[in-house]
Structures are given as C-alpha cells and as structure tokens.
Write a structure and sequence with these properties.
This protein has 375 residues and is an alpha/beta fold. It has one domain (40-88, 103-374): Rossmann fold (3-Layer(aba) Sandwich). Helix content is 22%, strand content 19%. The chain contains eleven helices and 14 strands. A ten-stranded mixed β-sheet has the order 1-2-10-8-9-7-6-11-12-5. A two-stranded antiparallel ribbon has the order 3-13. A hairpin with a 5-residue loop joins strand 1 (40-43) and strand 2 (49-52). The longest helix is centred in the first third of the chain and has 20 residues, at 107-126. Mean pLDDT is 83; it is low at 1-33, 143-148, 194-201 and 366-375.
Length: 375
C-alpha cells in the first residue's frame, strides 16, 4: 500500500528584496537652428543674403508660422506668372546720361548696387540649386470657376482685415486694433509705368497725396514698445526723402531708421532682370526698417538682400518669416496697403483681399468649403 503523501506543515516565508536603482538622467539641452520654411531656397550663414520664392512665401503665409516651418502640406497653391527666364531689354539714352530724366545715382543707390552685386556673388559661389520653385500658371491651372467660386475669398486662420481706404477704416482701426510687433507698409507710390499697366493696381497721383494718406496712419499708438516698421519704397529719390528726410514721415511717426533691405529681382538663371547700371530702371526695390526713437531694439543684419524671381507686378515676398529671428514667438503683425492676407495678422487696405480671391488659387488637396466666405 502506498504511503500517503506527507502534508507539509512548515511555513514558508518568502522574502522579497526590493532593490531601488537610482538612475541619474543628464539632460542635455541642444540648441538647434530652426528649419527654414520651404520658401527660403538659400541663405548665407549671416542670413544677410536670402533667396526667397515669392509665391511660396505667400502660400506659407496662409498657415501658422509653426506649420510653415514644419513643411505642412499646403492645401492651396497660388496661381502665378511664368517665371522670367531672360532679362528685360531696357532702352538706354544715347548720351548715356538720360537727359536728366533717368535715375540719379545717389550714395544710397551706389550702396544698394554694391550690396546687390555682392549678394549675386554669394549666390553664384554658394548656391547650386534652382532660383525659384515650380509655379502654377493660369493656363495650367484650368480651374472651372462658377460665379460662386469667383466670389469666394480664402480667409487664413486668425487673420483680420479692414477692407477699405485709410480714411474710411481709420476710426475702426483706432478702436479695435491692438499694438503690433511689426507693421509692414507697401504704399502705392506714384509710378507712371504701373499706371500704364492693365488691371486694378492703384497708385497715388503724387508724393504730396501719398504723404497725406500715410500721415493718417496711427503708427505711434499701435506699434509695440520694441516693435519694428518695414516700409517698401521705390527708387524715386523723393520717396526716400519723404520718409527719412528732416521732418519726414519717420520723424512724424516717432521712428528712426535702423536698416535698409534690398529686394533684388533676378531671372531663373540668376541674372538681374535688367542691367544694374541701367539709367532708367533698377532691378531692385528697397525696404526701410525703423524702430521707435530711443528704442534699444537691434537687428542682426546690415543691408540684408532678399533675392527672388519676381511674380505678378504687385506681388512681393511675404516678410513674416524673415522677422522671426528678432521678434517674439507668434508676434503680431499688420500689413497696410495689403493685397493678400497673412494668418494671424491684420491687413488694411482697399485691395486687402485682392489675391485671396478664388481665381488666384487652386486646390492642392481637398479642403472644406467652410474655408471660404462670400466677399
């Protein structure tokens, strides 16, 4: 007979030894340079020479700065002109002087020409890529537009617009507008060649009339303490004097000039769109950068040169991303005499919705119809 199994009466004590391991984590903070947006095709180490794609900069301006830098897929593409492949031929005066009616080479002009020439040398020596991104041309867009589509306007998130003249919208601006870290002005300076072009590109009749209009803009009350102002100017000598001369508009607004940028326009092969020594036309426009008088706000660039293959006549590079290095994260911006909107910014002008019209955009991916409002 089998012996029954013994029942163990001995208590078994299980001792669990808990070993506490202290792990010391060393956190290393690495400072990385923010990725430039897609519109920036090249910039030198000092960021003083920047090759920027005009249509792409406007497309990126329809999204937040974070989305632009992250390379978020664009829902819309801007319909653009054909990229210029060859320089324009500009007739020159037979005597080489222009009979007194051409552009005068001031000290400022000579400095601009030198900065532009140096920028071209930098590009030729350091940039082997393209000068502009592929574009959507009107004949390629083939957008089937209904009356409703023609009346639709694309409104970027967080943008506010005052659609009207400086006079008609001034009271509303004074009541509703906040202070801004950056105010960009693109005044309709008197320009005979622009007046001859077809379309609705409005220009002022004279420097006196545009001065009266600019004087109505309440810059002093709506610029943040360490804010900046950027004013696009033409190459007409009187324009610079109107801004920076004794008793000029900068003084009237309580500002002082801190820098001057150049927007150099080139062909797809990297040549200036006209001869830089032309007596009648320059391949550049300029931007006067100013701050409040007495402000300690500094800018890290000197005579910064933006280089682009131009688009339609009144389109310029969107400047939002170019000031992110010196202004607060998510800074507030205002564009006066705007022709398109920028996400998170205010826009003011009677053409503020000009390039937000449905006819200027094609869908990149499907988007909700709620992104459009009736104009």
């Amino acid at each position: 007979m089998a012996k029954p199994a013994e029942v163990a009466t001995t208590a078994t004590t299980t001792t669990t030894t808990t070993t506490t391991t202290t792990t010391t984590t060393t956190t290393t903070t690495t400072t990385t340079t923010a990725r430039p947006p897609r519109s920036i095709l090249f910039q030198d180490k000092a960021h003083s020479v920047v090759l920027i794609d005009v249509p792409a900069s406007i497309e990126e301006a329809q999204t937040s700065p974070a989305e632009a830098r992250a390379g978020t897929v664009r829902s819309k593409r801007l319909v653009s002109s054909q990229a210029l492949a060859r320089p324009f031929t500009t007739p020159e005066p037979k005597d080489g002087k222009g009979g007194g009616s051409g552009l005068v080479d001031s000290v400022s002009d000579l400095m601009t020409a030198a900065a532009a020439a140096q920028a071209l040398e930098v590009l030729r020596g350091q940039h082997a890529g393209c000068c502009c991104l592929p574009r959507i041309n009107p004949e390629e867009a083939c957008v089937a537009e209904t009356r409703r589509e023609k009346a639709a306007v694309f409104i970027p998130e967080g943008s506010v617009f005052l659609q009207g003249t400086i006079v008609s919208e001034r009271d509303r601006f004074l009541v509703e507008a906040p202070q801004f870290d950056l105010i960009v002005l693109d005044p309709p300076w008197p320009n005979r060649s622009a007046r001859r072009k077809k379309g609705n590109y409005n220009v002022a009749d004279s420097l006196d009339s545009i001065r009266e209009t600019l004087a109505l803009i309440p810059i002093a009350s709506h610029l943040a303490a360490d804010g900046l102002v950027a004013v696009w100017i033409t190459n007409k000598p009187g324009v610079m004097r109107l801004l920076t001369g004794s008793g000029g508009l900068l003084a009237q607004w309580g500002l002082e000039q801190v820098d001057e940028w150049t927007w150099l326009k080139i062909t797809t092969s990297g040549e200036p769109i006209v001869d830089m020594a032309s007596a009648w036309r320059r391949p550049w426009e300029r931007i006067v950068i100013a701050r409040r008088r007495g402000s300690k706000k500094s800018v890290p660039w000197r005579q910064r040169v933006l280089v682009s293959v131009p688009d339609l006549h009144s389109r310029k590079p969107n400047l939002r991303g170019l000031f992110e290095d010196v202004l607060p994260l998510g800074y507030k911006g205002l564009e006066v005499f705007a022709r398109n909107l920028t996400a998170g910014w205010w826009a003011w002008g009677n053409e503020a919705l000009k390039f937000q019209q449905r006819e200027h955009w094609v869908d990149n991916i499907a988007v909700e119809s709620s992104m459009y409002v009736s104009s």
